[in-house]
What does this fold into?
Amino acid sequence: MVVPLLTKLYGLLVTCACSLQSLFLLMVRLYWGFQMMQTGWGKLHNLAKVTDFFASLGMPVPAVTAPLVVGLEFVGGILIMLGLGSRLIALLLTCDMLVAFIAADREALSSIFSDPDKFYAAAPYTFLIAFLIVLIFGPGRFSLDALWEHLRTGPRQTGSLPS
It folds into this structure.
């Protein structure tokens, strides 16, 4: 009698949690997309400083690399918020955050196991996690990607999320 009740309650929990996936993905996309857009916007207005910073880190061709990265962060943040090209943009922004860790926050990256608090506190960390979530789980139902998929193929017959 207890096991069937627990099984039913667990099934209800899973159903409720699954119904929140798209809302959660929307919140992640809106918040972190906006944060990335703001970061890119700020860097766009200080492109010379960003270029100098990239040069000081030994980044290749900083005069080309800086505008590309800044553009990716600004436009990519907008696209993440809209849920348009989400997985591709999330992949590019994930790479951007990995390079940020390697080039500008190497000490935090190298302390991932010895001092995890330093790793978690580094600026790229939360962006990296947010973009990995979008990359792995997709943008969810409340996205232009899902709308495009719906228009292209018709409504899904199953309750699965768009990929």
Observations:
- The CA atoms of residues 57 and 104 lie 7 Å apart.
